[in-house]
Amino acid sequence: MASVVIVGTQWGDEGKGKIVDLLTRSADYVVRFQGGNNAGHTLVVNKQQYIFHIIPSGILYEDKKCMIGNGVIIDPAILLEEIASLAEKGLPVTPERLMISENAHLIMEYHRRLDQAQEASLSKEKKIGTTGRGIGPCYVDKVGRTGIKIGDLLDEGSLREKLAASLDEKNFLLKQKYREEPVSFEVVLANMLAYAEKLAPFVGNVSVELDKARKRGENILFEGAQGTQLDIDHGTYPFVTSSNTVAGNACNGSGFGPTHIDSVIGILKAYTTRVGEGPFPTELHDQTGEALQRKGGEFGATTGRKRRCGWLDGVVATDAVRLNGLTGLAITKLDVLSGQSKIKMATSYQLGDRSLNAMPSNIRDAARVKPVYEELAGWQSEINEVTAYEDLPVEAKDYVKRIEDFTGVEAVIVSVGPDRDETLLLKDPFDR
Ligand code: IMP
Predict the structure, then answer these.
(1) Which of 4, 164, 223, 297 has the most beta carbons within 10 angstroms of its beta carbon?
(2) Residue 288 CA neighbour count, 13 Å, CB half
C-alpha cells in the first residue's frame, strides 16, 4: 500500500488529468484536497467526453472511491450538475463511491458575484484574471470564520443564522461598493435547502474514512489542482489562487497525517503555460510561443481562455522540487516540442546584476527578471507513437535527462500525446 500525492509544478494546466487517470488505476481512493471548480480537466474514454471540475476523475472506475476533502470549496449547483451529467452518461454517482467532507466550505452565489465584481473594478495592471467562480471570496470567508460549511446544510437553524449574518455584509458590499443588485436571503436559502437534500447522503468524515483505508492497506492518490506557482503562500502573489496548492496541503486539506505520505509526483509540462495575469519569466511573444499554443491546444479547460506559452523554466521547476519535496516527475506534452530546431530551458534569472535561482517573492522583481537560457538540440520526428522510452529520439531523451539532472529528481512518467496509451510509465509510484 502507498499514499501518493500529485501536484502541478508550474501555473496549473500541466496535464495532471491524464496522469491522475493513469495512476488512478493503481489506487483504491482518489482524494481532492484544495481548490474548487476553478480547476477542470477533460477526459475522453471510449469516445465519450467527460469534463471534471470537482469530482475526481477516479469516479470513472467502478472500483474506486472518491473523496472531496475539507480543503476543497464546493459550489453545490456545479457539483450536482456534475453528478447529474455523469448519471446521464450511465455512471451513477452513489454515496458508496463519493464522500464529501462535512468541513468543506460552500461557494455561495454572493461569492461568485463578489469575485466578478471585484475583478471588474480593478485596473488592467491589478486584475488577477480569476476564473470568476467565487474562489477568493469563499476562502476569505473560511479564514475570516464567517464561511458556511457543507455540514451546515444539514442543520437548517445554523444555515439560516450564518446566511443572514453573511448576507448582511455581502449585500452591503454588492450594493454600496459595487452598485450591484443584492442577493435575496429567501432565494439563496431555498436553493441551499434543495441542495442539502440531494447532497446529504454524500457528506461524511473524510479524515476517518482515509485513516481506515490506510490501515486496511489501500492505495491512496491525492490529486492536487492548479500548480505550485499559484500557491497562496509560495506562488507569484497576488497573481495566485486562494489555496495552498503545494503537496503539504494534501494533509491539511483532507485530514491525513504527513507521516503517511510515501511519495510526491510533480507534473511538469515540457514547456510552460499560464492562464490569467501575473509574472511569467519565460513567456514567448513570438511565433514559437504561438506554435506551442496551437500545437499544445493551450486553452483553459474552465474558462476557454488562450494560455500564455513559453519555454520550460528550470527555476520554477526547482522551486517546485523544494516546496513539494518531489520524489518523481511526470513530464507531460513532450510531443508538443517535436519539430523545434532548438529547445530552451531557463536555468537561472538575472535581476540587474544579481543571479537568482528561485522566484523572487517581490512581485515587481518577479515581473522584471530575465531568464538565462541553456539551449538544447530539438528533434524533428513526431513521437506520439513511441511506446518504449528507449525509442524516443536521442535529443528528446537528452532533454528529459537534462531536466532530471537539473532538478535532481527522476522522471517516472513521460507523456507523448493526449491519449491514455500515449504515456511511458517508467516507474509506478504505487510500487514500493
Ligand atoms: P481563481 O482561482 O479563480 O481565484 O483565479 C486565480 C488565478 O489562478 C487566475 O490567474 C486563474 O487563471 C488561475 N487558476 C485558477 N485555477 C486554475 C487552473 O486550474 N489552472 C490554471 N490556472 C488556474
Answers:
(1) 223
(2) 16
Residue that is written with C-alpha cell 457543507 in the block: 150
What does the alpha-carbon distance between residue 383 and residue 380 come to, in Å, rounded to a whole number? 9
Residue-level length of the chain: 432
- For domain 3-96+205-425, give its CATH number from 2.60.40.1120, 3.90.170.10, 1.10.287.130, 3.40.50.300: 3.90.170.10
Q: Is the CB of 113 under 6 A from ligand 1?
A: no
pLDDT digits (tens, 9 = 90+) for 364-421: 999 999 999 999 999 999 999 999 999 999 999 999 999 999 999 999 999 999 888 8
Residues of the chain with CATH 1.10.300.10: 105-202
Residue 429 near residue 412, CB atoms below 8 Å: yes
User: Which protein residue has the closest C-alpha to ligand 1 atom 1?
Assistant: 130
Cα(226) to centroid(ligand 1), Å:
7
Q: Is the CB of 136 under 6 A from ligand 1?
A: yes
Pocket flag, ligand 1, residue 315 (CB < 6 Å)? no
Q: 426 C-alpha vs ligand 1 centroid, how far in Å?
A: 31
CATH value of 105-202 in 3.30.1340.30, 3.40.50.360, 1.10.300.10, 1.10.645.10: 1.10.300.10
Residue (of 104, 186, 204, 196) closest to 154 by Cα position: 196
Structure-block grid coordinates of residue 27: 489506487
Q: Is the CB of 241 under 6 A from ligand 1?
A: yes
398 is a catalytic site residue: no
